[in-house]
Every structure is written in C-alpha cells, then in structure tokens.
Amino acid sequence: MTLNVVNLVGRAGRDPEVKYFESGSVVCNLTLAVNRQTRNSDEPDWFNLEIWGKTAEIAANYVRKGSLIGVSGSLKFDYWQDRATGANRSKPVIRVDRLDLLGSKQDTNTSQVDNYRQEEF
Fold this sequence. Notes:
This protein has 121 residues and is α+β, with helices and mostly antiparallel strands. It has one domain (6-120): CATH 2.40.50.140. It has 2 helices and 6 strands, in the order ββββαββα. The longest helix has 16 residues, at 105-120. It is globular, with a radius of gyration of 16 Å.
C-alpha cells in the first residue's frame, strides 16, 4: 500500500501566478505559509503549491496574498539542471487537488481595499 496525501491550512504568501496554455489548460502557482510553533517564536514553513484546471481559476479569482486557505493534495518533486552551474536541482511541490477558501468575505474585501490603497501611492 502507498499513501501520498498532504493537508495544509495557512495563508497565501503572494498573489497567485496563473498561466494559460494553448491547449486550454490552466495552472496556478503560489506559496503557502503554515505556522509552526516553536519554543522561541512562531516560524512559518513555506510550501510551493501547483493547482490545475477549474480549481486554478478559482484560486486566481479569489486568493490573494494573506488569504487563509486549506489545501489537500500530494507531494511531488520538480527536477531541473541549474543553467549557471550545471548542478542538478529539485524542490518539493504540493500538487493541489482540493482548495478551500477559509477566510471571510470581509477579509477578501479588506485585502482588495489594501491593494487599491497601495496602488494609489
């Protein structure tokens, strides 16, 4: 038996980055900060999220930096070769199957107002 399930609740570390492909597929990438309590302070663990399809469009439309979200998915690794050094690199990524918007509508509206205020200056 094998099991690869990840469940996380945290806050979006940045606004989603969305890419649309000619095939009609859509992918959304963002980071998630999950607080980890230690003796000295709360230190967040950072996770890279990859979301596809309709769920990616929902994330693009409703998730903003600081939004409280829950995700369920599986752990995968992206592999590549560093162009500058030629070294092999990898990073863990959570492939999200389910996205839950946990913040209130007021949180979303406040976030949009803050973004608007930042653009004014």
